[in-house]
């Protein structure tokens, strides 16, 4: 063992610090700027300090109905989160055994992750257009569209969140000790009891991680929503629309509000994960507690 | 993972299930393969309905005809001929689509090279220099958090810094280094590359860190003991062992940048042509077959790059 730290440590530490500053610096700048005074502009220096622009968002005087977009994004994010957690955990369990079509599912997930978003989005939009045309031609001439937040939009978001969920499940089960399940089986537990009382409590912290990924990826999703969401907009789409006409700090205020939701969700999820880990450490083992 | 149980099961299925035969019989009614289908089926259906079938539709529609109002389901190569219009006549000069792809590849290469450099050293620092697990977790989380916030916000965050009256320009003017604000800082290729690096270095850090953390530290000790310098250890031990992470990170960054139209749109002031932007423009003009044809071309090129990269490393083995 060498004494002290090598010189490369300090060089790389400075490099790392510079990277973190690069990551956070610009974001902090807009969070600060969203508290401009009523006369404030898009750049520093600050022209007074106020919550004027944030309040303006909630008054809904802007060009777009941000309140409605906010609720839509929230609803979609929560549904995506639930579906992602359920489907990822189920599929993750399936991958612990060999089954046919295993590699098809695996490669679909990987492909879905790396095929450029605009192509997935365009494909979904074409698919729904063709479905619409079929419905119009054969059943109902006045049919408008089957595209929407919870049809094409939900599907588009899931093609982005499910691969992450599946990969996290792989990571979990790489570390999972199957002897715990064997022990449960030896004690007479049914497969469902084994899952409910042994597997789930152990993997729960990571499952919450999947939920966190599901919600925040959907909440901030833009490229896949762009063609596939239908007539309505999500909050990131509205935000992107604003960037072309930006003149006021209200766009920063909107950015700050969206980030605040993201950070709240991240904090809640990490807090829960931490709590569950502590609980597991405290109650997970009954070693030394005797027979009764 | 061939456990003793598997061997038992092969020898005598009933023995392995244990003495509770009633329950065993009940469980046996649902065969393992049926349970697997039940578990994996829903996710497969989502990918089928919202990824695989849409991809097939992209290919089919790329060969359809169109007019100003609608899709015409009849075979036509118009989507492709419109895309490559004038390409042969203009030779040896590049036509519009050719120029666009060259520019997209150039942006892609720049972003890849920079994110690889930053990502490698950040991951190296976290994996080899940060000794305590708690610090490692904390610092990784610090890098991860910005990834969880909106990309558009992280893009517009550069406006107050790079704009005409932004911090950088006013700082440079005040210190007397320049007389007039620099115009190329924002809404330029420079700002596009900067924003892409800012957004996606994360995708490089995570996989490289993951492969580095798995490197057996005794290999590095052995290299030192055998008299290798720090640089030799890096080139002959660490880089080869971190290669899977480097390839996976590179695939992520390259596919994202190849298909990107949002960052290039916002940070390029809607002025820079790129492969993804062509598709968006065609869709906005309701020329779906042309959009689909461009999507097929983009997909083919992306697929080519990935195939080339995955020849270097077996991705499935690394996950």
From TrEMBL, chain A:
Asked if the keyword Transmembrane belongs to this entry, the reply reads yes
Q: Which domain of life is it from?
A: Bacteria
Q: Where in the cell is it found?
A: Cell membrane
Topology of the protein relative to the lipid bilayer: Multi-pass membrane protein
**Which terms are listed as keywords in the entry?**
Cell membrane, Membrane, Transmembrane, Transmembrane helix, Transport
Give any single GO term for biological process: transmembrane transport
Pfam families linked to this entry: BPD_transp_1
Q: Which PROSITE patterns match?
A: ABC_TM1
This entry carries the following GO cellular component terms, namely:
plasma membrane
Q: Which residues form the ABC transmembrane type-1 domain?
A: 70-269
Instruction: List residues traversing the bilayer.
Output: 9-33, 74-95, 104-126, 146-173, 194-215, 251-273
Q: Which SUPFAM superfamilies match?
A: MetI-like
Q: Which family does it belong to?
A: Belongs to the binding-protein-dependent transport system permease family. CysTW subfamily.
PANTHER family per record: PUTRESCINE TRANSPORT SYSTEM PERMEASE PROTEIN POTI
- Protein name from the UniProt record: ABC transporter permease
What organism is this sequence from?
Bradyrhizobium ottawaense
From TrEMBL, chain B:
State the annotated membrane topology for this chain.
Multi-pass membrane protein
Q: Report which superkingdom the organism of origin falls in.
A: Bacteria
List residues of the ABC transmembrane type-1 domain.
101-309
InterPro entries named in the record = MetI-like (IPR000515), MetI-like_sf (IPR035906)
Q: List the keywords (alphabetical).
A: Cell membrane, Membrane, Transmembrane, Transmembrane helix, Transport
Tell me the protein's name. Answer: ABC transporter permease
> Which family is annotated?
Belongs to the binding-protein-dependent transport system permease family. CysTW subfamily.
Record-level GO cellular component terms:
plasma membrane
Q: Where in the cell is it found?
A: Cell membrane
What sections of the protein cross the membrane? 43-64, 109-127, 139-161, 184-209, 288-309
The GO biological-process annotations, alphabetized, read as:
transmembrane transport
The species is Bradyrhizobium ottawaense
